[in-house]
Design goal:
294 residues; mainly alpha; MetI-like fold; 2 domains; extended
Length: 294
């Protein structure tokens, strides 16, 4: 049995190799050009941002030594007593940490419900009013552009210290962020079910309920859970301006140089966020069907 191989004429092969080399050189020069532009932009940003590398290098030891000061002194012989002394206010801190989680939960629920109601009116493939879509999207932009810390300061001055300011601030920022994510998810759906419901005489509510909602519900839940995890961290920061939660005690400890209290509170926040991350990740995977793939 004989076998034959397709051969390319030498002249044609040389032409193909030459074209390949030209394309490689062109891509290489494009990459170098992009890197050069990025380097120039970084230099310009550093110049106008007054980035002082010499000051960074001279004082980096102060930054690293701070972590050494906040760490408690733990010995093997008196480990239990050292830990008890380190977490002398464990009951009060746990209560404040629970307040932070509840603030994040309530803010996420309010923001997600509001974004859910408005996103369908902002989607270009569902809402017919161009001006309504434009106005809702600008509201989303405003709510997510203004930092939640600024909203917290405004609500603290209006309603006083406490969790209410934190809930409202995080809820508004969550509304703007989830509104954009929900809208983009709706605009990427398959329009055939929507057209099918609409062709049978279905109204806007029925079109959304039976044509669009089943396609995006799992994405909505996944985005909301991810935002809840982020809001737990935001709630910790919001407490520093009087918006309730454990952040208020953390700010007091930093301001009064209670070093071991700082590390104790930070460790509690880190553990809490890590647990939230693991739990929400499992829920998101279950909703998206990734558990079945595994």
């Amino acid at each position: 049995m004989t076998s034959s191989m397709l051969s390319v004429p030498q002249a044609r092969l040389q032409a193909l190799l030459a074209g390949y080399q030209r394309e490689v050189r062109r891509r290489r020069w494009q990459s170098l050009l992009v890197l050069a532009i990025l380097a120039i932009l970084v230099a310009i940003a550093g110049r106008f941002g007054e980035v002082d590398l010499a000051n960074l290098v001279d004082n980096i030891s102060n930054f690293t030594s701070y972590f050494g000061r906040i760490m408690p002194r733990l010995t093997v012989a008196h480990f239990g007593a050292n830990v008890a002394d380190w977490y002398w206010n464990i009951t009060g801190w746990l209560k404040l940490l629970l307040d932070t989680v509840l603030i994040a939960y309530l803010a996420t629920l309010i923001g997600a419900c509001a974004a859910f109601a408005m996103a369908f009116l902002a989607a270009a493939n569902l809402a017919s009013s161009r001006w309504l879509r434009w106005c809702i999207k600008r509201v989303f932009e405003f709510c997510r552009t203004v930092p939640d810390l600024v909203f917290a300061l405004m609500f603290v001055s209006a309603f006083g210290l406490g969790p209410l300011a934190g809930v409202l601030a995080i809820a508004i920022h969550t509304f703007g962020t989830l509104g954009k994510l929900f809208t983009e998810a709706i605009e990427n759906i398959d329009m055939k079910p929507v057209e099918g419901v609409h062709s049978t005489g279905g109204r806007f509510i029925e079109t959304v309920r039976f044509g669009a909602l089943p396609q995006v519900m799992s994405s909505f839940a996944s985005y909301a859970l991810l935002r809840f995890e982020i809001n737990v961290r935001s709630g910790s920061v919001g407490g520093m301006v009087g918006a309730g939660g454990i952040g208020q005690d953390l700010f007091v400890a930093i301001r009064k140089f209670y070093y071991t209290d700082v590390s104790a509170i930070l460790l509690m926040i880190i553990v809490c966020v890590a647990i939230m991350d693991l739990v929400t990740e499992r829920i998101r995977h279950r909703l998206s069907g990734q558990d079945k793939v595994r």
